[in-house]
Design a protein that fits this description.
This protein is an alpha+beta fold. Helix content is about 30%, strand content about 15%. It is built from 13 helices and 16 strands. It holds the Pfam family Beta-lactamase. This is Penicillin-binding protein, beta-lactamase class C.
């Protein structure tokens, strides 16, 4: 088990080191019994890193350990970065959140909503109102993911080549046009559904900024924050640092998934703002700290204080939670007692959620069981990285919360 870049003794920031060691022992068992290949975790408080640890292997077959600089596919933890990119442009007056998306992406001009039928013969009606930018930021646009396997629209997405990937040869602009040509799951703004909305938002960033998404990220977010290891692909000289991707075996243990995992070794044609980035524990902590510090880190300000507060507020109508407003399907967060902001989940009431935490904390996770959250009330950031797909396999995130919050001992 490795430990590096700790900046402060845990007790100095109200964390009990003995209790933090429970976290390490608990997740070490996940590796020792074959549930995870390896993992890396970071806990910081009051702006200082109080605990880091890594355990297990980034490549089981090659026997390479997880190290502090291991590269992980963060998948949907890309979404908050794309949301910040859009909000940076919003702060510049480039658009209003109530603007129709079709003003910038004309393919969304005449949307229709699925009301019945089959994937082969869908029945649709015209959308009552247009898809707006805030619908993309809040996953209330009526878009979906083909991997949901819940209703007819998910099947339509799969029939068009959209499940865990995109059709070969299509770039971001072409994928967005394809999605715009499919029906919506519901009238815009009427429900919450985890979806490709953030990928569409990434294309909006491209059109409004005049830059490709990777260039915008590098110039405006990753470079200024010093996130030097975060990108849409891993260059060949750094390939050995990349953790292999695994899925659980029905017989127990892990199955390596190189078909999907090796995709990041080649610069992608489709720049996925919804799930395309690779990053490190250190880099993502920089991004999370920027959010905790209300848009600024080490003299670099990406967003205004009020904008970050706005991002972390619950934007679901009437202040309801996802259980009341969302469809009962998979997402990278619990639904009960949890709302949704602009690209992040928002904890409304830990008592209702039956979890330790603070009202107002926000964060998200990725498909390979990664997670992060920012807790303004406790001045706390947690980042956990591993590479097990899908993230619903084990209760890693809820257990991580129990272990972290039970280590807080100040008053």
């Amino acid at each position: 088990m490795t430990n590096a870049v700790v900046e402060v003794e845990p007790l100095a920031v109200g964390l009990d080191p003995g209790r933090l060691s429970r976290l390490d022992r608990h997740f070490a068992r996940y590796v020792d019994d074959g549930r995870l290949p390896g993992w890396s975790v970071l806990v910081s408080r009051h702006g200082q890193v109080a605990h880091t640890s890594s355990y297990g292997l980034r490549d089981v077959e090659a026997g390479r350990p997880v190290t502090d600089d291991t590269l992980f596919r963060i998948y949907s933890m890309t979404k908050p970065i794309t949301s910040v990119a859009a909000l940076m442009l919003y702060e510049e007056g480039a658009f209003e959140l109530t603007d129709p998306v079709s003003r910038y992406l004309p393919a969304f001009a005449e949307q229709r909503v699925l009301v019945g039928g089959t994937a082969a013969k869908p029945v649709t009606v015209p959308a009552i109102e247009p898809v707006r930018i805030w619908h993309l930021l809040t996953h209330t646009a009526g878009l979906t993911y083909g991997f949901h396997h819940v209703d007819v629209l998910d099947e339509i997405y799969r029939a068009n080549g959209f499940e865990w990937g995109t059709p070969r040869g299509l770039d971001l602009a072409a994928c967005v046009d394809a999605w715009a040509g499919l029906p919506l799951a519901f009238q815009p703004g009427s429900e919450w559904n985890y979806s490709v909305a953030t990928d569409v938002l990434g294309r909006l960033v491209e059109v409004v900024s005049g830059q490709t998404l990777d260039t915008f990220f590098a110039d405006r977010i990753l470079g200024p924050l010093g996130m030097t290891d975060t990108a849409f692909s891993v260059p060949e000289p750094e390939a050995d640092r990349l953790a292999a991707l695994y899925t659980p075996s029905p017989a127990g243990g892990l199955v390596r998934s190189d078909a999907m995992g090796r995709a990041v070794l080649t610069p992608p044609r489709f720049l996925s703002g919804g799930g395309g980035l690779v990053s490190t524990r250190h880099d993502y902590h920089r991004f999370a700290q920027m959010l905790l510090r209300r848009g600024e880190l080490d003299g670099v300000r990406l967003l205004g204080d009020r904008t970050v507060r706005f991002l972390g507020a619950n934007h679901l109508p009437g202040g309801v939670d996802l259980e009341q407003f969302g469809r009962p399907l998979f997402a990278e967060t619990p639904f009960r007692g949890v709302g949704f902001g602009l690209g992040v989940s928002v904890l409304l009431d830990p008592v209702v959620t039956r979890t330790l935490g603070s009202a107002g904390e926000f964060g998200w996770g990725g498909a390979a069981s990664t997670a992060f959250w920012v807790d303004p009330a406790e001045d706390l950031v947690v980042v956990f990285l591993t590479q097990l797909l899908p993230s619903s396999t084990y209760p890693i995130r809820s257990q991580l919360r129990q272990l972290v919050y039970s280590a807080l001992v100040d008053r």
